[in-house]
Amino acid sequence: MGMINFLYLIIGTHLHMLSMATGNSYIDDLRSKPEVIDLPENEQIIDVGEHVSDTAQSPLKPNVTVSSSVRDLLECPVCLNAMYPPIYQCSNGHTLCSGCKPRVHNRCPTCRHELGNIRCLALEKVAASFELPCKYQSFGCMGIYPYYNKLKHESQCIFRPYNCPYAGSECSVIGDVPYLVSHLKDDHKVDMHNGSTFNHRYVKSNPREVENATWMLTVFSCFGQYFCLHFEAFQLGMAPVYIAFLRFMGDENEAKNYGYTLEVGGNGRKMIWQGVPRSIRDSHRKVRDSFDGLIIQRNMALFFSGGDRKELKLRVTGRIWKEQVVPLNK
Ligand SMILES: [Zn+2]
Ligand SMILES: [Zn+2]
Ligand SMILES: [Zn+2]
Ligand SMILES: [Zn+2]
Which intervals hold domain SIAH-type (predicted)? Predict the structure, then answer.
């Protein structure tokens, strides 16, 4: 029906644009990675060449209006997600994503006709010629990506927002670092400190209650960056322990440029941890469960606390520094 005509029109328009843009990155991309379209053998590739001249004379202007229409066509009518090959269609031309296909019991969700196994190669090919901005554009990413590369980019985009680093809550807030810093301050009432050295006291009146809960998060601001110091009690196997570690509010490759030490002691003994802050891309739980921090057995912690072992009083001191940037000579 009308939709089929419309599709041919779009394909024609795109091929026309493609043929004018030789050396274009998405053509190269398709050549170098033919598997992205994944055409099964023996299936005919629709010959759209004859339509090119039709659309060249078409009054329809390519780009903006066509693009948003194609974008709508690429939305699965069932799950509303963007569709990727294989895209299926019923005998009336209604499309459906491969994820939803097994769930509709072989009935087209739009017209209730039998669905069968008809690939919509035309739409798959249109999608391949299509470029979209990264979905984190509002976070600052200016990248434009071929349709089939967009998801992969977005999973690694350095502008993708961070999860709230506050542990022990179900907080679902996401955002960039400045946004999360004010969120931690305003909504979680987290202590903020300026400077790269610190001296903290953690006091708890009943240390026998070791629960899987966050005790404390402190945010440090130094070197123009933000760091989260976590201190908490948890159960390591059967043993109740305390752990302290630092996370960097930024990406992993930048986190590696910093180092930190934590010291805790008393009664003439001292434990020192030296580490590299972990990016907040790694969840708090992941860092804790890899024991990447200063771990203090409860008995030792009580010994450090002095007194009659009724109260936990730990003094943790620490320092954050920026590693010297060594010029690459390899
Ligand atoms: Zn779907
Ligand atoms: Zn249908
Ligand atoms: Zn991006
Ligand atoms: Zn939060």
Answer: 129-189
